[in-house]
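re: that chain from earlier
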Amino acid sequence: MSRIRSAVTAVDRRSFLAAAGAVGLSAGIGVAVGSGGGSGSASAAPAPTASGTPAAAGPTPTATPTATPATPAGPSAARTTLHSLATPRDPGAAFRRLGDGPGWRRVVREQFASAKSGREDRRTVLSSFVQLTDLHVTDVQHPVRTEYVRSESAGAWRPHEALSVPGAVSLIERVNALGTGPATGAPLAFAMTTGDNTDNNSLCELDWYLTLMSGGLVTPNSGDPRAYEGVQNSGLRMYWHPEDGAPDADKRLGYPRIDGFLEAALRPVRSPGLAIPWYSTVGNHDGLASGAYADRTGFLAEFAVGARKLYDIPDPDAATLLARIAEGDTADGSALIALLRREKRRMRTVTADPRRAPFTPLQYLTAHLNPANTGAGPVGHGYTRDNLAGASLDYTFSMGADVTGVSLDTTDHGGHFTGSVGTGQLDWLERILKERRDGYVVLFTHHNSWTMGNKRPDPARPGEARHDGDEVVALLRRHRCAVAWVNGHSHRNVVLPHGSFWEISTASHIDFPQLARVVEIADNKDGTLSLFTTLIESAAPRETDFTDLSQSGLASLYRELALNAPGSRQDLAGLNDARNTELLLRR
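^ sequence. v structure.
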């Protein structure tokens, strides 16, 4: 596993270097770019229980899977990538346009057990849910953002980020339209987000995310309520300026002029909210400044709410900052803070906004427990008053008959975009596995096994050891009740066999192809389980019209601009056997 992590970390670092302006897996400052009870039903998940925990370009599988034709179980399959997906119509063009393309067939993976005939007639569905991950709901005008390193890395800023809110609404609309699992036909019991729900760890982004998920009106604007104050009308030609005809770095690559784009991007968006219960797992972007910094001095928090923003820096400074972040030697934000102190004369005046303040873990919990954010429930979305009392972001909940979900915070609060868990968390997880040994357990985290190598001490627990992904894998392998580890962070679809369970990592919804995943767990009544994974896109039309600035038109534009983002990775859909799958387990 250490060899795998080494190889993948190298890829993730390059991804970060190509995405330092928005952050996902790859970033301290950037995002990876490109990367029920009875038969036939799953019961709705009741309220969770808090943990009581002390506060606290993926690898390539080697086994050969079996490909089978997609055999949709019901009408929901026609709304998934089994049926069709957004595909470039003219892949050789400078700016590629999207249209309908063929779907991805389901792949049966038999590394752990053989697929026995007739299982589809015998099986009982244990749980059916949707995973959303790395939404990166983004305030594109936030002062702490580091768009300016784009001068040294084309992918360090995304031209489409201003449309993250209508893009997320369109994904919610798709989930609501599904209703049932595409493989089994079982009703979807819940949805789970696996972190990086926000991008800049700001209060306004947290409010937007919770409103999107629960339903309501979101105005994705901060600062001046009447004007856009970000980089896309700054006059700096390394950014796409959609509303003028002058050449810039992106128009030279075919990006269009779209009059009214910025005004449309800032106007209110109506979300229906998820129609099924939903749960929340935290990511590094939800817990650290820029997804990477333990802001111990409070400088970045103060800068975030202030009236100054840096738009560009000399190229050598951009290269130095990128290198230091990638090496992980500035987990306290010292390199960025030094740059901001030094470059005061280059800064421009913006409208100060206290809503841009970073939120603490306690504020994250309190906001989820606010009745105004309950939506389809449950109250707290996994978190309870016990979480508040124990300062913990870990919890368990029922996923259906004999299946327990465990949500674990893998953010290293000592800083950096890679993750780890504390000894108290690992011990708590082992207790849960022992208690549920006669049932099944699914672990939900943000980080995946190969991006959990960060062992910086938690400032709140300086004497507690931190543990990496290898140790989590080893623990899960010791307990046969563990059937899956579901996560995100890398912005790429990866499905790995770990001896006795499957690790399922899903692509983001900010980088193309902008996916989420349905997971259905079924007992085949022949000594095996089947874990079906099916990828879904948003409900937005695949073909775009640059003059359509309606809410759905913006969601379509979000996808097409993401496809064409300079410096983006083109392998984030993953391999065929990491997309639509049936994963067999012996039980």
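The first helix runs from residue 2 to 17.
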